[in-house]
Amino acid sequence: MKSAFIRKVLAIVLCVASFAAVSCSSSQDGEYGGEAVVGITQEPSVFDPHTVVAAGDKEILFNIFEGLVKYDHTGELQPCLATDYKIADDAMTYTFTLREGVLFHDGSEMDADDVIYSLNRACELMPNLETVESVTDNGDGTVSINLNSPNSELLPYLTAAIIPEGSGDTIGETIIGTGPFKFESYEPGISVVLSKNENYWNPELPYLDKATFKICADMDAAVLELQAGTVDILPYLTTDKTVGLDEERFTTIAVGSNMVQLLALNNAVEPFTDVRVRQAINYAIDREEIIDIVMNGEALPLVTCMSPVMGFAYDTSLDDMYNQDIENVKLLLEEAGYPDGFDMTITVPSNYLIHVNTAIAIADELSEVGINVTIEQVDWATWLEDVYTNRDYQTTIIALTSDFAPYDVIYRYASDSSKNFINYSNENVDEIITSIPQTASDVDRYDLYHDLLYFIADDAASCYIQDPYATTAYNNRIEGYEIYPMYVQDMSTVKIVDN
């Protein structure tokens, strides 16, 4: 273990300067320097990489913290703080060769003790790492992760952040990672400012001196900031917000986002304890019509908890399971004891216009079958506390994000999962979730995923709506920006160029 542990405390500096985009500073090749500003509509809440829940927080922390492996913009896992890894044939041991010369943002060098400490802490705080028995230093520049049972699905969770040994109690305030950017300041309601890590292990990155995440009141305000030049990059746009953007000044790109937008039904609250009521709601809506209204057609319709973007684990045979069928809706509601319909409330985070608009469209369609909807808009902090944490709600509309791994998508449906905020429970699903990581055969695992998706869809665990295309607009003075198939804003490859 390290004989001394002295970490410099980072002061949270209030940033009162203007956020107008600055010009690129001079360098030998003209690529390095300057500041780029990302517009966000969600107030950050957590800076601890092992306890963070909100996707909007994760997209910022991606630039500060790194794991043994890290996703690239294609959704592929790449070596990061490890240069290589080997998985034992029985999937009981994962061995990583640590990258040499990696420095934390406080200047201390990363070693095996930091990795062991970080992964042990992550195992205590993060789901899906419960099969880890121990992490050991092999003394030859490698560490081994030893499991108590086979787990063929562990690698995506080893993106867990490596932090300085002993720093867990203060990591949310003294924010020290190994990433391309260092935490500089956070001013609530204003911005999170990151500065270039001059000692980053990849000497070619990052290009920017600063990456600022500017907090905007809502998407309309953010679009105005983009047009005014005080925001350079604006993600998660609906297509109507891109209309009128000057093509000479801005570029708009859209790809599948691997997000699952759903009308989440609290399975522990009447009348949604009854599977017939949940099925009726699924049959009542026209997903294609909602996508046309809300997204201008720019989304993939969904009937279960996984997006087709996930590939092999998705089951295309389910695609037509919940085509709109009003007669079936009436029959199911009558059988459930609600022949005249019922009243329900959709609690929706007001900072996400896409969810608000989806709630309005769904309310209109449900009214046609006697289900009267009240839409309750709440701020993001209230949604996290009341809906996600305390599960005190009837229904909500949200987009669920995940690591680019099918197991991460389905694990939230385990009865005992901390992420299971819809209170869904099915013994068959629990059994399959347990079986998947213990199954070595790819073919057999694919079959298990398909069985699981069927159970969740047949139970109508919730009403799944769409995988919205991720649309981002950025100023043409920006180059190198990539959209990821998960909630990430990778600022390391962004550079400022002359218009």
Could you describe the 3D structure shown?
The protein has 3 domains: 32-63 and 179-232 and 477-499, 3-Layer(aba) Sandwich (D-Maltodextrin-Binding Protein, domain 2); 65-173, Dipeptide-binding Protein, Domain 1 (Dipeptide-binding Protein, domain 1, Alpha-Beta Complex), CATH 3.90.76; 260-469, Dipeptide-binding Protein, Domain 3 (Dipeptide-binding Protein, domain 3, Roll), CATH 3.10.105. It is an alpha+beta fold and 499 residues long. It has helices at 55-61, 112-125, 219-228, 239-242, 275-284, 287-295, 326-335, 353-367, 380-389, 406-411, 427-435, 442-458; strands spanning 35-40, 69-71, 77-79, 82-87, 93-98, 132-137, 142-147, 181-187, 191-196, 210-215, 233-234, 250-256, 260-265, 299-301, 343-349, 372-378, 395-400, 463-475, 478-479, 495-496.
Concise summary:
By secondary structure, the protein is α+β, with helices and mostly antiparallel strands. The chain has twelve helices and 20 strands.
